[in-house]
Structure formats: structure tokens, C-alpha cells
Amino acid sequence: MTLLQLKYIVKIVECGSMNEASHELYVSQPALSSSVKELEKELGIEIFTRSSQGIALTVDGAEFLTYARQVLDQASLLEERYKNAKPRKQLCTVSTQHYMFAVEAFVEMIDSIHSDEYEFTIRETRTRDIIDSVANMRSDVGIIYLSDFNKDVIGKLLREKHLEFHALFRAPLHVFLARTNPLASKKMVTMKDLKPYPFIQYEQGEDGSFFFAEEAVWPDYSPKQINVTDRATILNFIIGLNGYTVCTGIDNGDLNNEKICTVPLDSDETMLVGWITNERAKLSKAAETYLEKLKSVVADHGYKLID
């Protein structure tokens, strides 16, 4: 086993495909594949499963990846100490549902990092993609919510994929409305009040089950419904089409407070927002910093953190 082979494994996981990794490593794909197979043979384990859809880490591969990263970190420290070489880039990848506070914490994390080089990634994406990304160690942290409706299904999926859910805060439900909407002045709205207006929700792709929905509740029947994939679009539709969506109620400067407001929704349901991590992975220093900033941002918005 060599450090080069360990670097190959880490790069393949980061890229998500053998072909893309071979391009970034400047080695041929057959040579890269052969090196991985030799390592698997030497260790007596299968690191990747290979199919027509691509490659994915096995259970043994996920555990091996954790040790490989630790070894490479130690090797980098040795090089920095004795060869005066540059340290490895600070790395952190976060996958999240469409929460403005998650982005706000990401900005604060980057501002606090004192490093000449770093490579950070944040993805606002579908619920199932968040879970798969953390399970395959393509993301350090995932931000999702649980409710009474989805907790059994999501919880079972997390356990199957060896993921841990860490509760952050519990939020009563709100809706985003345009300030020109007649309901914007109400202290609380009901789903019946909202029926005449377009219901806007985040599209969940082929896994469009209600259990994966980002909205904790939805109308029994909505004559006007719009599915979107990004946060900017949903905010534009709220303003331009007088639509609404269900949310935690946390806003920030991105919300455009002159045009959009949050109003409490009359519902017994709540959203237990938290982060997921892979139980086999050790968080990077940058990821730990992100979680600290995440807690700070939520607390600054007036929500009580869950220990």
C-alpha cells in the first residue's frame, strides 16, 4: 500500500467517478482502475462497487476512506514540517435543504478560516441527494429536518446508511408571503386561508415522496401548484405570482424584507432541524467550524438550541 494509492481513493470519492478522477490525477483510467484493484486485492476487501450507473463506496470502503484521509493528513503535516511544503487545502462540503441560515453559517465559516488555500462546497439540493452524499462521504455534513410525518421513514434510511442525526432546533411552521398579499398582515394563517394562492414547493425528482418533501405540511388539494429547484426562483414566484411556501420562519438579508415576510402557520406540526454525519467519518476542522457557526447563527435568530 502506498500514499499514492490512498490519494487515488480519496480523489475518486471526491470526483464521484473513476473517469473524472483520472483526468484530475493525470493518469489513464485503466492505470487508475488497476491500482485500485491491486489495493483491494492486497487488503482483501472491496472498496468500490461498480455498476452501469458508476461507482459507490462499500461499507468496508467507507471505513477505509476514513483511515486513508487520516494517514494523508499526517503525511501532509510531515511534509509541511520537514520539507517546507504547502499544507493540504482546507476542505469542507455541506449539502443542505434550502435554508438561508445554512448559507449564512457557511459564509461566516469561510470568513473565520485563516488559510492561504481552501476548497469549500455548499449544495442546496434534494433531500435524498443530501442523504446519499453524506453516506458516500462526498459531503461532510448534511442539513435536513424531521417531523412527526417523516421521522420514521427518514430515520430508517439514516440507520441503514450508518448516518447520525443531530438535532439543532425545533421550529414552528411559518409561510413566506409577499408583503402585498392580503394575508401578510394577519398574525397567523391557516391552510384554508392559503387555498386561493399558488402553493410553491421544492421538487424532489424521482424520489418525490411526501416523506422527502422540504415542506412539513401541504394543502389537501391545491388548484395552483408550482414545483421549483432553487431558492431564488421560489422567492421570485412568491413576489411575482403571490404564491406561498411552508418554512421554518428564519430569514436573513437574502429574503428581501421589503417584499417578503414570514407569517406563523396554524399547525400542530413542527420541524426538527438538524445535521447528519456519517458515523464512520471524522469531521474536518473546517466542518467542525461550520457546525459552530451554524449553532451561532440559529441562536442569533432567536431559536433555542437543542443540546
Explain what the structure shows.
- This protein has helices at residues 3-15, 18-25, 29-43, 59-82, 100-112, 127-135, 151-160, 191-194, 231-241, 285-300, and strands at 48-51, 54-57, 90-96, 118-124, 141-146, 163-172, 174-178, 199-202, 225-228, 245-247, 260-264, 270-278.
- With 307 residues, the protein is α/β, with parallel strands linked by helices.
- It has 2 domains: 3-84, Orthogonal Bundle (Arc Repressor Mutant, subunit A); 90-301, D-Maltodextrin-Binding Protein, domain 2 (3-Layer(aba) Sandwich), CATH 3.40.190.290.
- The protein has a 5-stranded mixed beta sheet, with helices on both faces. A 3-stranded antiparallel beta sheet has the order 10-7-11.
- The two termini are 42 Å apart.
Quick tags:
307 residues; alpha/beta; Arc Repressor Mutant, subunit A; D-Maltodextrin-Binding Protein, domain 2; 2 domains; five-stranded mixed β-sheet; three-stranded antiparallel β-sheet; 10 helices; 40% helix; elongated; LysR_HTH_N; DNA binding; LysR_subst-bd; transcription
